[in-house]
Amino acid sequence: MARTQAPRLVMSRKRRNTLIAAVLLIVLPFAIVLDRQLMPPVRQAMRRAAWIRGDDKRYHEQTFTVVAVIDGDTLDIDAPDGDRPATRIRLLGVDAPETHHPTLEPMFFGKEATDFVRDRAEGKQVTVLLDTVAGHRDRYGRLLAYVVLPDGEVLNEAIIRRGLGYADLRFEHSHYEAYREWMDAAIAQRTGLWQAVTRDQLPSWLQRRRPDLQTRPGQ
Questions:
Q1: Does the structure show a pLDDT above 90 at 36?
Q2: What pTM does this model have?
Q3: What is the pLDDT of residues 109-147, one digit of tens each?
Q4: Which domains does the chain have, with CATH numbers?
């Protein structure tokens, strides 16, 4: 006996195209909303991941010449960065007294901190180390890094140990606890700025995070 085939449902091309258009009209608004809400963070994360991989390869454990010292915690090295002729480094884990802030007056011991960094680093070859905990860039696009001086001393640490700046307690990094302890030691020994600084001369973030600091730290 011949086998009977089930009848095939045939849809005309015009009807099929009409159905596809209707589905698109329904789906497209939702797709636009999802793209606006979800895709920017996704794209940003993808760009950041690519940026991190690029920074690791380009900067980590590499040696550069310091071409300019901006202040006690910021310097430029001789490596083009995008459309900039040099890469600007913000020393990770340390905050030095401001000297060129757009809205703040130069802070107590800012000149001493800047002079120290200029004397130790400007024109010198340094090694850049990136961190495994902190991000590689700050919100201004500056590279966040430790800078190793020609004699092997880490500039970030030297600033804190000598009382030329503060351990930056706002952001996590691999040496957070060590930097905090070194600042406490500098306070106790009244080293550098801690010999005479008053509480109102400290950065506002430090005043908030360290209410234990007295009018004259170290006393």
A1: no
A2: 0.74
A3: 999 999 999 999 999 999 999 999 999 999 999 999 999
A4: 52-209 (2.40.50.90)
Task: Determine whether 105 is an active site residue.
Answer: no
CA atoms within 13 A on the CB side of 76: 12
What six digits make up the tokens of 160? 């804190």
CA–CA distances in Å: residue 158 to residues 42, 95, 118, 155, 164 = 39, 12, 13, 5, 8
> 3-state DSSP call for residue 75?
strand
Query: Which one is catalytic: 112, 120, 142, 161?
Result: 142
Q: Is the pLDDT of residue 152 over 80?
A: yes
**Is residue 128 a contact partner of residue 59, using CB atoms and an 8 Å limit?**
yes
* Catalytic site residue from 98, 112, 157, 161: 98
CB-count burial class (<10 Å; 0-12, 13-18, 19+) for 54: exposed
